[in-house]
Specification:
With 242 residues, the protein is an alpha+beta fold. The chain is 40% helix and 14% strand. Helix 1 packs parallel to helix 9, helix 4 packs across helix 5 and helix 8 crosses helix 9. The N terminus is likely disordered.
C-alpha cells in the first residue's frame, strides 16, 4: 500500500473551514489603510501584542506590562516602544505563487527596484495578500524587526539567540529561525494555510508539515474566532468560518 501523499495529509489535518478565496475588493488598497483598519477598527486602538502580550495603546507599547523594558538595546529602543503591523507570513514569502515567482517580482529584479513596492503597485493579488488583515497582527516593533522573514521552527538553529519572555508568552529568535510561544502556534498555522489557499503562498516541505502539526496541537480558541469575525466583517472574508 502506497503511503498517503502530503496533500492528503494536509487535507485531513486542516479543517474544512479554512477559506479558499478572499474577496479582494474589500481588502485595503494600501498598507497604510490596512494598518489604520487593524489598529482602529479591529483593536479599537488598544490591546496586547501578538508574540509577547505587551499592552499597547494608540500604537505605543508599555514594555513594563510584559517585563521587557530592559530587553532592547539603545538602537532598538525607538522601535521597541511602538507597535508595528507584523506580517505573520512575511511579505517576501508572497513573491511566489504556487511555487513560481510572480511576474511583478521578476520585473522588479530586472529593473533593480524594490520588489515589495513594485508588486504592490502592479500585482493586484499581491497587493491584497500584502494588505489582508488576516495576516497582520500588532507586534513590538523591535521584535518585528528581529523576526524579519525568518522561518518558523520548534528547535533552535543558527546563532545570536535572543529570548523575549513577555506576559505569559515567549518568543525565541536566532539568526536563522523564530520559535513562537506554544499558545499561538495554531494561530500561525491557520493564518499560513489561509494565505496558501487564498493567494498561493508557497512554503517549504518542513514549514508545511510544521503548520499541519501546529494546527492539530493548538486548536482554535474563542479569542481567534472573535478576532476572525471582526476581520471578516471589515473585509468580507470567511476566515475561520464554516
Amino acid at each position: 500500500m502506497n503511503p498517503p501523499s502530503l496533500l492528503l495529509i494536509l487535507t485531513l489535518a486542516f479543517p474544512a473551514w479554512i477559506p479558499l478565496h478572499a474577496n479582494a475588493s474589500q481588502i485595503s488598497s494600501s498598507f497604510s489603510k490596512a494598518k489604520q483598519k487593524l489598529y482602529k477598527s479591529v483593536y479599537k486602538n488598544q490591546g496586547e501584542t501578538f508574540y509577547v502580550n505587551c499592552s499597547w495603546q494608540k500604537k505605543k507599547v508599555d514594555l513594563t506590562s510584559c517585563n521587557l523594558q530592559n530587553s532592547f538595546s539603545t538602537k532598538e529602543s525607538k522601535r521597541a516602544k511602538r507597535t508595528e503591523a507584523e506580517h505573520i507570513i512575511p511579505a517576501s514569502w508572497l513573491y511566489k505563487k504556487n511555487g513560481k515567482f510572480r511576474q511583478c517580482y521578476l520585473d522588479a529584479k530586472a529593473q533593480k527596484t524594490s520588489a515589495r513596492k513594485h508588486c504592490q503597485r502592479n500585482d493586484e493579488e499581491y497587493r491584497s495578500a500584502h494588505n489582508d488583515l488576516v495576516n497582520l497582527r500588532p507586534a513590538v516593533g523591535a521584535i518585528n524587526a528581529a523576526r524579519s522573514n525568518k522561518p518558523f521552527a520548534e528547535k533552535l538553529s543558527g546563532k545570536r539567540e535572543t529570548t523575549y519572555r513577555g506576559n505569559g508568552k515567549t518568543i525565541i529568535i536566532s539568526s536563522r529561525v523564530v520559535i513562537p510561544d506554544i499558545k499561538i502556534r495554531g494561530d500561525v498555522a491557520r493564518i499560513a494555510l489561509y494565505m496558501q489557499r487564498t493567494y498561493g503562498a508557497t512554503y517549504s516541505k518542513r514549514q508545511t508539515e510544521l503548520f499541519s502539526k501546529w494546527n492539530l496541537d493548538d486548536p482554535v480558541s474563542d479569542e481567534e474566532v472573535n478576532l476572525a469575525q471582526k476581520i471578516n466583517q471589515l473585509q468580507n472574508t470567511d476566515f475561520l468560518t464554516q
